[in-house]
Amino acid sequence: MVQYLEKDWSCKGQIVGNPPEFSVWSFESFDSAQKVVMDLGMHCSFNHGSVIMALYCPFWMLNKTGLMLSYR
Q: Which residues cross the membrane (predicted)?
């Protein structure tokens, strides 16, 4: 990934023929001499003989309002 959070990120890994449905990929960037790591989720699904890979960022939303929230 180029210029995300003002850094360039890279990840090395092997894509296997039958990947797990969910996995974690670790991207690295170097800020001066310090290495920074960002873990992202990878979701794999299969469609008509093709592997569909979606990179995503899981997060938790905390509701501290005491009210019910509705997500769309």
A: 40-62
Residue type, 38: M
The 10s digit of each residue's pLDDT in 4-62 is: 888 999 999 888 888 999 999 999 998 778 899 999 999 999 999 899 999 998 777 88
**pTM of the entire predicted model:** 0.70
Q: φ, ψ for residue 11 (rounded to 5)?
A: -145, 135
As given in the structure block, the two tokens for residue 40 are 């992202």
- Cβ contact 59:39 at 8 Å: no
Residue 23 host element (H or E): strand 22-31
Closest CA to 38 of 29, 49, 47, 50: 29
